[in-house]
Amino acid sequence: MTAMTPENFSQRNTSATPDGNDSLVNLPQYLITMSITVYSLVSVLGVLGNGVVIWVTGFRMKKSANTVWYLHLAVADFIFAAFLSLSVTSLALDFHWPFGKFMCKLDTTIISLNLFVSVYILVVISVDRCVSVVWPVWAQNHRNVRNAFYVSLCVWVVALIVCIPPFFSMDTKKGSKNKTYCIVFFQKATPSVIHTISMIHFLLGFAVPFTVIVSCYAVIIHRLRRNRTLASQSSRPFKVIASVIVTFFLCWAPYHIIQLVVFMVPNALFNYAILNGIFVATNLVTLQSCLNPLLYVFLRQDFKDEIRKSILNVLESAFQEEETRSPSDMKSVNTRQSREKSGLITEV
């Protein structure tokens, strides 16, 4: 999946504005400032939030197929959020790319990898829930941590294979004022070939996966309406999964729509409007990487319980270390800790 970003749009379409290759610097400053702000917040919150999900699902919770799905989804979003700092730096430098050719290729590949891993893990989650509802006996015999790990590994391998083309198509190019841009090169491809590539990416990365997801949920809803007991048992995980899917759709739909129309723009003015739209679309895309952890925390009671218990364990360890450093106050600290621990256990 070739990443459509503001940094490389003007190089694909040199008529983006009347100023050609320097169109980016003539964009409204509030759009650039907004992107820097959003990217910075998402980078910090995405790393912290997904880091918590990785910690809880990978080391604190009992292993299950669900925790494996959420763990791999969080890993993809964590890597994506970590690499956003490069985009923040480039935006702050008026789109100058100071990190070299290899990092230009790697950064775009990570964006593409996050897209495909996220959407395919969501497809796997939906199919997994559908199978659990329609064929519960088969799911009970085959739905385990090992098989979930193998499926997740296959998702990563497929996503990496799909992301090979962006790695080789991205490159750096010298621009005006001694600036270096990280762009995608399509000089040897005709507009029809480029549009065909965009259509294939749209189908493989968005349309087909979401058709599968919607179909799975249609089957699940039909089954739940016929079995109220099953519906009551499955309501909580469905809320989490449905919220993640809706969030992903709202964040990625504008991106894919622009991917389809960007090569069919009729004139420079419309081209410039598309360039502005790319900023909004990419901001929505980046938000998705830090929204998933929030959905886990606020909608799943087991996540909240594990996080609270883990924080209490950290605080207890800190008190114990403080106690070791202050032997003279050991007796009073022990008394206070015993009281606090009793109260905490009662709350939990």
Major sheet summary line: 2 strands, antiparallel
Q: How would you classify the helix and strand content by structural class?
A: mainly alpha
CA-based shape: globular
Number of separate helices: 12
Average pLDDT level: 76
| Strand/helix succession | HHHHHHHEEHHHHH
Strand order of the largest sheet: 1-2
Secondary structure tally: strands: 2
* Terminus-to-terminus distance: 46 Å
Calculate Rg over CA atoms: 24 Å
Percent of sequence in beta strands: under 5%
Specify the helix fraction band. Answer: over 70%
In the predicted model, the low-confidence regions spanning at least 5 consecutive residues are 1-23, 322-348
Keywords: Chemotaxis, Disulfide bond, G-protein coupled receptor, Membrane, Receptor, Transducer, Transmembrane, Transmembrane helix
Main location: membrane
Subcellular location: Membrane
Family: Belongs to the chemokine-like receptor (CMKLR) family. Belongs to the G-protein coupled receptor 1 family.
